Amino acid sequence: MLKKYIGGNRAENLDWLVNVWLTNGPPVCFLQGFSGVGKTDLARDFRDAAEKQKCWEQAVINEISDRPTPSVIESLMELSATLSRQGLPEMERVLFEEPNPNLGFALEKALQRPVVIILDEAQRFFKADSGTPLPEMNGILSFLRNRQNLPGRLLLLSDRLVENAKWSEWIPKRTLTKLEPEEAIEALENKLKDSAVALDVPLDRKQDLVKALDYNPRAIEALVGALAYDSLDEIIGSKPGLWDTEDRVVSREFLDALERDLLERTLKHLDMAHQKKLWRLAVHRRSFKREALERICGSKDEAAHLRTILVTRYLINFRSGALSLNPIVREISLGHLKEEPAECKQAHSGAADYHLRHFKAKQIVGTQTSLGESFAEVRYHLVQAGREAEIRDIGHRFTDHLKQEITSVSPVPKDPEELDERIGVLSVLLEGGGAKGLEYHLARCLQARGKPGDIEQAVIHAERAAGVGAPEASWTLLAKLKHQAEGVDSAMRTIRSALRTMADPDVASPLYQFGAEILSGAGKTDEAVALLKDGIKVIPADKSLSSLYQILSEVLCRAGKSSEAIAAELEAMERIPEQFGRQKMAEGALLLSVGTGDSVQLARILSSTGAAALSRHQLSLGNVLECQDRGDWGAAADRAKTARVEFPRYFVLAAQEAFCRLAVGDAEGANRSLSEFPNLVFGTAEPHGWLTAFIHLRRGARSEASAALEEYLGRPVDESRANRGLRARPRPALGSSFFALMPIQSKKHLIGGCRQGSIVGEVMVAECLPPK
Q: Going by C-beta distance under 8 Å and a sequence separation of 6 or more, which residues neighbour residue 108?
């Protein structure tokens, strides 16, 4: 028998999950619904019902931790540890014993047994902006899509509605909705009775209350908690606007604001000693056992008393021995705690001790990784508590754990707190050396953080990651760090050592590129050219050979050797196939020719045959540039527009049309030329961002120009500098003289030929600095 539910939708969903999905599948299902509607409670009842069927070996709920950067593999390792402790080690074996384990296969191994797995807060495995799964999660779901007959079941709880897309079309989606009005009133009356709170108001007043709370069960609990201390009139009178629902749909954001106000009222009435204990509990990123509460209280009796207060005021949930803070209460409490650094550190220290209880030698049983469920949490709290050194005592048990979680290609955490944690953990575990992949990752983390002393420490770990047989990325990182810490000569020694010892010199293009860049930047042009020519001799066309020619052309241009730069581009055209970057070489040769006024060379390139012949779309670009070379900018714009009909996705033509329309004073036409290009993406140092900023300036749209320039530069624009500059300097004339203002590399940059260009004309007036 199913328990009596308040809410027909709840009973219906539970009945379907137990009597339909468990029997018929498929192996994966979503239970979706807005925060506070009761998904976790329903999932617990579902687990209990599954256990009573006696045909399931295990039914487990695993909560995905609230990390700044979600880690699918770490969460799966925690799940595998939970399953292993319950006699289901198959998933754990795949994750820890296979190199580069397939996460979908690992989860399949668990689901090959009759087991029910519930992942709470699964929305953390999906992108917040689009709702699409993270790459790792997408791989898992794609893998399981072709395993429809698995005996196990995976239920994913999400507080966001799952998008209807190809990746999710095979997965059933059950939606837990808000209560019906009469159900919400029944829930309110039951909660008032359970909490011994009186509310003597007529039915129509209760109807207005639950409507303002959007019939949300958790928000109703928050109201009951506040009513334990304040009258209804006091609560509504303090912020009447939150309770006015006339002609208004209650949005998610509005409901959050109302719930927060109720919870803050309740929290203010707590004894300060109780408040501080609640703050300390807020550092837990997932649910915890009663022992965590007992550790911050003087006795079990005190802990039981505090738990009663927090549970009856709906600040904390307590079910099956596990406690969890209301998410808004946790957010509020963490905000208070962070204002008191000493208290915050002590709270993390207490949480670390709570998790460390599993790591006492006499308590350790099972496999080496059976405690992996707690490892992520204990290391997080130890770092936040300033107790990194203690990681060494348990860390040796988890080297394999970290190797699987962190690889050489793992992204560096963007959240500062998470980055500090990653550095703290790895610094302790790798103090005497360790796995090269971990050494490499730690060096990248230190480089990204960039605090005093970090670069020097990063060099140490990068040196350990490099050496005979090391991949190109390890050597390139070491060279860059050496350049930052010790200068060009030290970096070049590293590069030359790498080129001598790399097992596969075919992939060394990034080393040649970086070496040439720093040599050129140091004024050592001849050395840079020599290094690039050495690389051009050995790098195959399909291993970024075009990048070496491109940089060689840039170096020669900066040295004023434009004819040699063109010769390099022409040589590249004959050596590199179209699919490996030949197009950029052809574009570079064309633009350099017209930019230097070499009409003869331009004509020679356009008439080339055989291996040096241009493709049809490159010829169309050449025809546009021929008009520019004659000074006929109007004809150039018209030719570009005509060619775009045949080659609508060739962006260079769109950029050239816009540029030419600017030259004849048609800023609006230039704007249309770019805006008509489909799916144009802007970003830092994207050449069309530069052009867009200039176009908006010519249109007189300063705010749009500033926005485009900020996007291009990757940093805010100083409007005061821009305004002073515009008042102080006349506008440059457009036309052929405008094109002549641009350095050659900027001409190439305009169409994507180079990675870095100059800001000229009014954009130069606005900022005077190229992107960093």
A: 143, 144, 147, 150
Residue 181's CB is within 10 A of a number of other CB atoms, namely 13
C-beta of residue 223 within 8 angstroms of C-beta of residue 209: yes
Tokens (6 digits) for 115: 């087991």
Element (H, E) at 162: none
What pLDDT, on the 0 to 100 scale, is given for residue 30?
96
Asked if residues 648 and 678 have their Cβ atoms less than 8 Å apart, the reply is yes
304 φ/ψ sector (left φ>0, alpha ψ -120 to 50, else beta): alpha
- How many Cα atoms occupy the beta-carbon half-sphere of 280 within 13 Å? 25
Which tokens in the block code for residue 437?
A: 């992949």
Report the distance separating Cα 126 and Cα 132, nearest Å: 5
pLDDT at 725: 39
Cα(212)–Cα(206) distance, rounded to whole angstroms?
A: 10
Give 752's contacts (C-beta < 8 A, 6+ positions apart). Answer: 584, 587, 651, 652, 687
- Helix, strand, or coil (residue 735): coil
- Provide the terminal-to-terminal Cα distance of the chain, rounded to the nearest Å: 66
Residue 507's pLDDT is 92
Distance between CA atoms of residues 141 and 134, nearest Å? 11
Q: What is the DSSP letter of 362?
A: G
Give CA–CA dist 685/145, Å, rounded. 40
CB-based burial of residue 489 (10 Å sphere; 0-12 exposed, 13-18 middle, 19+ buried)? exposed
Q: Which residues contact 391 (CB under 8 A, 6 or more apart)?
A: 379, 382, 383, 424, 425, 428, 429
- For residue 319, which phi and psi values (nearest 5 degrees)? -155, 130
Which value, to the nearest 10 degrees, does the dihedral of the CA atoms of residues 696, 700, 703, 708 take?
10
What is the four-CA torsion angle of 177, 203, 223, 289, rounded to 10 degrees? Answer: -60
| Cβ contacts of 489 within 8 Å, gap of 6 or more | none
**DSSP category for residue 6:** S
Instruction: Give 10-residue mean pLDDT values along the chain (772 residues).
Output: 65 95 95 92 93 92 86 87 88 85 94 96 88 91 94 95 91 95 93 88 90 92 92 88 70 85 93 94 92 90 93 89 91 94 94 80 40 72 88 68 75 89 85 87 95 94 91 96 96 95 90 96 95 95 93 92 93 92 91 90 92 91 93 94 94 93 92 89 80 89 88 77 41 32 37 31 34 36
Contacts of 683 by beta carbon, 8 Å cutoff, 6+ apart:
689, 711
Residue whose tokens read 């440059």: 732
Q: Which residues pair with 120 in a beta bridge?
A: 63
H helices present in 714-771, as ranges: 719-728, 736-741, 744-750, 761-767
Both tokens assigned to 744? 């050659």
Residue by residue, what is the 3-state secondary structure of 260-319? HHHHHHHHHHCCHHHHHHHHHHCCCCCCEEHHHHHHHCCCHHHHHHHHHHHHHCCCEEEE
Q: 44-68: string of b/e by CB count within 10 Å (b at 16+)?
A: bbbbebbeeeeebebbbbbbbbebe
Kindly write down the DSSP assignment for every residue of 480-525, as one continuous string.
HHHHHHH-HHHHHHHHHHHHHH-S-GGG-HHHHHHHHHHHHHTT-H
Asked whether the CA dihedral 627, 628, 631, 637 is positive or negative, the reply is positive
Q: Distances in Å between the alpha carbon of 122 and those of 107, 155, 161, 219, 704?
A: 15, 9, 11, 22, 39
Q: What is the DSSP letter of 198?
A: -
Query: Which residues sit opposite 133 in a β-bridge?
Result: 126
- 33 phi-psi bin (left φ>0, alpha ψ -120 to 50, beta other): left
pLDDT of residue 298: 81
Peptide bond into 26 cis (omega under 30): yes
What pLDDT, on the 0 to 100 scale, is given for residue 690? 83
Does the pTM surpass 0.85? The reply is: no
Per-residue CA distances from 96 to 48, 152, 416, 552, 576 (Å): 30, 21, 28, 46, 43
